[in-house]
UniProtKB/TrEMBL annotation:
Coiled coil: none annotated. GO terms for cellular component: cytoplasm. This is 23S rRNA (Cytosine1962-C5)-methyltransferase. It is found in: Cytoplasm.
């Protein structure tokens, strides 16, 4: 067993349930250092603090428990059971388990009807995959379990990029789910993430409150058409939906047909290229939901410049009292950054930027106050008023 002893006064955040120990917070390590192995964590005065996965990366320990419990099949079963219970108000498709926020760092589980997709984002979890499968079989009784651990990560994380069937029948190429009365086709094998962005559920619902009847709308990074279809259902006359990924656009078109929606124009382009060339009518509402653009704290200035450019490209094409929804799925690009970027984009212009609201990730992606990093998605909704 690896023993990790912390520097003085570094135990406080662990006692307060922050689940990460950084390399520079460690006083000494006893035992053979093996990537992904369970370790016991102690304060500098040898107070037991808990157990976690050891890593030789910058995050040296990812905590599993602050109790002296055995990390066995029953441990995983209890965690997954409690996570699913917390989501009992949701329908049959949702994020079932969300990593640290549900108590197991690196474990992502998405549920699409009776099909389960898992993603392993922690080297240590590979040793416990069978426990996870058995727990899901017992609690969910799915038709199949499929792994999608084909995400981008640092080389030093040493995580295997496993993709494939784990249990039950072969998972379909396409699964049809429903959210807010809109049907979606999900491609669990090839779609981004595990095929669908459950985290924008609340924002997709909120945008309906902002759309005026017969308005012109833009979905700047549409993926499979979520914002575009919700704006259509809310009464928009026409929506232009942009995405650089042709495969995602093909699914978006199928989704529109599935919902008898025929007023969305799909464009295979980057948002930046399209807006530079756009010469059409001005928009009443523009939803700008780019992929994660900054990864680290020191990239904040870069992030401000990136989001400022996104807004600058939008503003010539927005009507007076038009609405911009500016979203960030990066922890380090917080609401303050989005506000600063928007303010700078409109600096020197006689326009009021009126706050309408802010939406965050849906509640199946829990935000734990003691874990600041667990709040990563935010959408700032603003009305731009000419003076």
């Amino acid at each position: 067993m690896i023993i990790v002893r912390l520097n003085k006064n570094k135990e406080k955040k662990i006692i307060n349930l922050y689940p990460r120990v950084f390399k520079d917070e460690i006083f000494e390590i006893q035992g053979e250092k093996i990537e992904g192995e369970i370790c016991n964590v102690f304060s500098n005065e040898y107070q037991f603090l808990g157990k976690g996965f050891y890593s030789e990366g910058n995050i040296a320990v990812k905590m599993l428990s602050t109790k002296d419990v055995e990390i066995n099949e029953e441990f995983f079963k209890e965690k997954i059971f409690l996570a699913n219970k917390k989501r009992s108000n949701l329908k049959n498709s949702y994020r079932l388990f969300h990593a640290e926020a549900d108590g197991i760092p690196g474990l992502i589980i998405d549920k699409y009807l009776d099909y389960i997709i898992i993603q392993i984002r922690n080297k240590g979890l590979e040793n416990y995959k069978n426990y996870i499968i058995e727990a899901l079989k017992d609690i969910i009784n799915p038709k199949s379990i499929y792994e999608r651990s084909d995400f981008e990560s640092k080389v030093e994380d040493k995580i295997e990029r496993n993709v494939g069937h784990l249990y039950g029948e072969e998972i379909p190429e396409e699964i049809e789910i429903e959210e807010h009365g809109i049907k979606y086709i999900v491609n669990p094998k090839k779609g981004q993430k595990t095929g669908f962005f459950f985290d924008q559920r609340d924002s997709r619902k909120f945008v309906r409150e902002l759309v005026k009847k017969d308005s012109l709308a833009l979905d700047g990074h549409t993926f499979t058409g979520g914002f575009a279809m919700n704006m259509s259902k809310a009464g928009a006359n026409k929506i232009i939906a942009i995405d650089k990924d042709e495969d995602s656009l093909q699914i978006a078109k199928k989704n529109a047909c599935l919902n008898n929606i025929d007023n969305i124009e799909y464009v295979n382009s980057t948002y930046e290229n399209y807006m530079k060339e756009y010469e059409g009518e001005k928009f009443d509402i523009m939803v700008l939901d780019p992929p994660s653009l900054i990864k680290k704290k020191h990239e904040r200035k870069k992030g401000v410049d990136i989001f400022k450019n996104i807004v600058e490209l939008a503003k010539p094409h927005l009507k007076d009292e038009g609405i911009i929804g500016l979203c960030s799925c990066a922890y380090h690009a917080d609401t303050d950054l989005l506000i600063e970027a928007t303010r700078k984009a409109y600096f020197g212009e006689q326009k009021l930027i009126q706050f309408i609201g802010v939406t965050f990730q849906s509640n199946d992606h829990p935000w734990i106050i003691q874990i600041p990093e667990s709040l990563y998605l935010k959408c700032l909704w603003m009305k731009i008023i000419n003076l």
